[in-house]
Design brief:
hydrolase; 50% helix; globular; TIM Barrel; A_deaminase_N; binds zinc ion; binds 2-acetamido-2-deoxy-beta-D-glucopyranose; adenosine deaminase; alpha/beta; 11 strands; four-stranded parallel sheet; metal ion binding
Length: 504
């Protein structure tokens, strides 16, 4: 039922009630009906639960009521302050075990935990480090000592450097801090959106020398898939930027090489984990670049899509929306596929902003005018009723990444996240993690926790979780045949999860 026709039927009902027994106190049946109707409208509101599922739903409800009594309430606090509390939460532990379907919004250079990067990648031979004057670091693998670079004095080989240190663990911890935003004191470290974004972009530069070294790159992707798989995720769509992989002798591979590696490593991972569906790539370019550069990237993406249709899902613009070019600014570049009559699906970041009414804020409208397949973040979507309605009727899902929005300071208490409106309104939504390395998360369980306990409140139930997981397959870029296969596999895992957890 559309919201309009349901509105009319409610009015007719109210009139009938009033003719029968017009009392001054509101009719409790009418109240019940209204509450039930509202609940049925939310995400997962029409999912019919089996008796076993109802049992688990009741259990989850009780756990959530207890969770809400915790002071401070974790979703009301900055994630960095409460991660250790969330880790102990019984709701969180259940969410970890839950088959969550797919991760549809993650960036390739922030896929793997900082621990692995430091303890594995930087321990390989030929790894050099350079300490920048402003306090960050750069890495490079090289057969000989690299030439000095701008902003830092000299390169040191890490194995030699570590050999001379008395406290290697403390040093390694400091390197981890260089590769993540995670800190005990986020208020001081990132007082404003500008400060948070500045560090954010800087970390990507620090990461690049590590993860684009060809041998690390391969193991890194494998490790990324493993971290997702261990969190009960079966499929990934990864935003991949323009950086190219390099070898020890300085040889640089082309971008097609990286795509092939994504495909090959995914295949290798699937051989070892047959219940993993796979991964696809969304070709991305930074929105701080010029129209002509973006145009060239669109052309490249069209070409890559022709050559690697199985691995390349589409195209996106990345980087901070508030300071980069808007979708409308790039309209000439983005019209290229339709002009050339080529199919290049778009997966735009849009509305990751609180600048209501500005050109930036119009990205959600423009993303839809460019027929985007999904909307990254869509934090501003609730300010655009027409765009919101259009997205719903076209089945354009919002990729909700709550921890990212909180760390990048769009919202502090996650109970106030605008996606709460989308959830109660049954809007198509998927949950994702954006940049696990930088936010100190692995998998999707932390973001699911914030959505389920914080944004969704006490009304979000097992039906909501089930629909969110199914949405991630439904709104993926997989072919309908692969979607069916993924959905069947997911259902099997779900049944097992319900059977194992609905007893107690
Ligand atoms: C890093 O991980 C890879 C792949 O799991 C493993 O083969 C390698 O031995 C590890 N290297 C170090 C230095 O831990
Ligand atoms: C990065 O690592 C260096 C070297 O250990 C350290 O001096 C610096 O404080 C670290 N930076 C951050 C942001 O933690
Ligand atoms: C990917 O695998 C294919 C088939 O095994 C191989 O020919 C190709 O060289 C691999 N590509 C890369 C970049 O490793
Ligand atoms: C979006 O899709 C509509 C309907 O299929 C089509 O008419 C329009 O040209 C498309 N717009 C762009 C920019 O691709
Ligand atoms: Zn993103």
């Amino acid at each position: 039922m559309s919201s309009l026709s349901w509105h009319i039927s409610l009015q007719v009902f109210l009139m009938l009630v009033c003719i029968k027994e017009c009392m001054l106190m509101p009719d409790p049946h009418q109240r019940d009906l209204m509450l039930k109707q509202e609940l049925s409208q939310q995400v997962g509101g029409r999912v019919e639960l089996t008796p076993a599922e109802q049992h688990l739903d009741t259990l989850l409800y009780q756990l959530k009521v207890k969770e809400m009594a915790i002071s401070p309430f974790p979703p009301a606090k900055h994630f960095f302050k409460v991660r250790h509390v969330i880790q102990k939460s019984p709701v969180f532990k259940l969410l970890q075990k839950m088959p969550k379907g797919a991760a549809l919004h993650i960036h390739s250079s922030a896929l793997v935990s900082a621990d692995w990067l430091v303890l594995n990648a930087t321990y390989r031979p030929h790894c050099y480090i350079c300490f920048m004057w402003e306090g960050s670091v750069r890495f490079l693998f090289s057969a000989r000592t690299p030439f000095p670079r701008l902003g830092c004095s000299f390169w040191s080989r890490l194995d030699t450097l570590r050999a001379g240190l008395s406290d290697v663990t403390a040093f390694d911890n400091s390197l981890m801090r260089n590769l993540t935003l995670f800190t005990d004191d986020s208020e001081t470290a990132y007082p404003t959106q500008d400060a948070a974004w500045k560090r954010f972009e800087e970390i990507f530069v620090a990461l690049s020398g590590l993860v684009t070294y060809a041998p690390v790159f391969k193991d890194y992707i494998y490790q990324g898939l493993k971290e997702l798989y261990d969190d009960n995720i079966m499929y990934l769509e990864l935003r991949v930027g323009q950086s190219r992989a390099y070898e020890l002798d300085g040889t640089v591979h082309d971008k097609a090489w990286s795509l092939e590696v994504y495909r090959n490593i995914t295949e290798q991972f699937r051989e070892n984990h047959p219940d993993f569906i796979g991964s696809r790539v969304i070709y991305s370019i930074h929105r701080s670049l010029s129209v002509s550069t973006v145009k060239q990237a669109v052309q490249e993406a069209i070409e890559m899509q022709r050559k690697y249709p199985d691995i390349l899902a589409g195209f996106d613009l990345v980087g901070r929306e508030d300071t980069g070019g808007s979708i409308w600014y790039f309209r000439e570049a983005l019209s290229l596929p339709s002009e050339l009559k080529k199919n290049l699906p778009f997966f735009f970041h849009a509305g990751e902003t609180d600048l209501d009414g500005t050109e930036v804020d119009r990205n959600v409208v423009d993303a839809l005018l460019f027929n985007t397949s999904r909307i990254g973040h869509g934090f501003a979507l609730v300010h655009h009723p027409l765009a919101k309605e259009l997205a719903r009727t076209r089945g354009v899902a919002v990729e909700l990444c709550p921890i990212s929005n909180q760390v990048l300071k769009l919202v502090s208490d996650l109970r106030n996240h605008p996606a709460g409106v989308l959830i109660s309104d049954g809007h198509p939504i998927v949950v994702s993690s954006d940049d696990p390395t930088l936010f100190g998360t692995t998998g999707l369980s932390y973001d699911f926790y914030e959505v389920f306990v914080g944004i969704g409140g006490l009304s979000a139930n097992l039906g909501t979780l089930k629909e969110l997981a199914m949405n991630s397959i439904r709104y993926s870029s997989l072919s309908s045949q692969l979607k069916d296969k993924a959905m069947m596999l997911w259902q099997e895992k779900w049944n097992k999860f319900i059977a194992e957890n609905s007893k107690s």
